[in-house]
User: Fold these one by one.
Assistant:
Number 1:
Amino acid sequence: MSRLAITLGDPAGIGPEIILKAAARLRGQTDTELVVVAPPACLERAAQTLGGAIADSWARGPSACGFAIEEIAQPAEPIRIGEVSAAAGEVAYASIARAAELALAGRVDAIVTAPISKEALNLAGHPFSGHTELLAHLSGGTGPVMMLAHGPMRVSHVSTHIALREAADRLTPPRLRRVLDVTYDALLRIGIERPRIAIAALNPHAGEGGMLGHEDLDITQPIVDQYRARGIDIDGPVPGDTVFVKLRAGRYDAVVAMYHDQGHIPVKLLGFQVDPQTGQWNALNGVNITLGLPIVRTSVDHGTAFDIAGRNLASEQSLIDAIEYAHLLARTGAVATASSPA
């Protein structure tokens, strides 16, 4: 049995809706207990939006919906669905902070986060570029690593929420070793006995022997050689335009990407399900996992979707995937907190 804290996300977005939908689908499972960290009024409004069986369950109380509530304060001001606001950002922050407290105190085994608005978070006076950075601050962790997972597509990142021109400077031997260590550890924890990892090249064609940049030759290749000498099954640097095709073909269990979009684009391209008739996406599979912290955290792999919030259009599948990954990782504790320096 695992006990998971589910954060509300931005209450003006789809977070409350997908939490209720996911809990309804998972209700009755005996191996996971869900604790939603939220002001009850935000969930009540979502229940009324969804109507039907979910509204009926809410009328009987949270336990009928399949979860318990860890209450936090009501918003200081009315929150308008679909709009960015400091009030919504403060609720999102408070939910994350309380969940982190629960995890650090051992009252929950892992945290699963619904999507937040970085703009709203900053408007509320919390200057963090995302969940990863905020949770590292709250938990005292250093060197966190973002991994995206969609089925067998697992991609860790050397850098994430920074300007592209800074990405090359973030590729250092200590950081690359850190990402490799926590990625390898996470793969072991989900049951892969001998993980196979590829490192994506930073430069086109892995630098063409230095003609297109020296980072792959001078930084990545020596580390690949070191890990191979230790018996680790590692390949790289592999050009970015082919490494994800090989991952999808099953040649690797994970890829280490050099920067945000290099890793996000292939995973999200496969994860989004688009209706060809309307051009609208109607589902998204995939999980965002934070590695290298003293707590286990997974998340949906999509944003707040303000444009469809309050309309009962959002898919809960990514949240269900995140809950399942959190349950899997929670069985073995926090993931690789100090294998290498950050």
Note: The two ends are 33 Å apart (CA to CA).
Number 2:
Amino acid sequence: MTDWKKYHSNHFQGTKVLVTGGAGFIGSHITEALLQLGATVTVLDDLSGGDTQNLAAFASEASDRLAFVEGSILDQALLAKRVAGCKYVFHQAALGSVPGSVDRPAHYTEVNVIGTLRVLEASRQAKVNRVMFAASSSAYGDSQVLPKVETMRTQSISPYAATKVACEALLSAYSGSYDLDTAALRYFNIFGPRQNANSAYAAVIAAFAKAISADQHPMIYGDGEQSRDFTFVHNAVHANLLAARCKKRIRGQVINVACGTRVTVNELATMMAQLMGKPQLTCHHEAERAGDVKHSLADMTLAKKLLDYEPIVSFQDGLAPTVEWYESVLC
């Protein structure tokens, strides 16, 4: 869908990189783009949330430049072995659900925070140039101020958000203390093909696709007027690649990654039902969930200034192929 060489030319040609969580949703798209750009990629994933099938569609085309390793970011010795010789690390591995973190806060802290510490330490010792980290817009909490600007005070209202904020602090500390540059990319509601629809904590677009494909009314927690800055996954990939290429030190700065537009959950459900040819499947509402944020909208000024980032796929242009993909795997 996206011609990555149009945006990134030959910058990654022959470059060795590590993608943690590279068999997951976002990680597999980063891996695919890097392979198209000529990089040699090692994917490290414990498959707790990822799936090797996410790599299958493109792995055969560059099998000589792709290595998959099943393992955990908590394994310091394994990390040290796999990061050796890498120029960049794209750190996407994490447990990624707000409700899941409410259920298991200690486990989320162990994997997300201690795991990130070990990725940073392995990267420092291997003399990696830069680590790109999958931060989260959940760090902004339930502040009513819109748009969300990176200088706003963080307000973690879930254990998941707290782990991501803690990781941001670690990135800043490592860039301040060592010769390791880092970038914290705060993702806003990333969606697209390969996002798991079968998880108990599936993201809203994946959950809606599963319900509608089964002729069920999409379920919304709350009144549905909560809004999100839904961001197609190729925009997140683009931001990661731009961050890796940045000529200036980023020094752990937090950078929003989004489209800078809002869509309500009610609007999303209506659009998806129409795209899937089932407009009669209107929303079913349940009580709000603990830790959920009411509104989300990103300010894109810093991303543009620091990375020259602009979204390359609009919400509407990303939703149609996403729905098509779900229809192909769910029906």
Note: The mean pLDDT is 95.
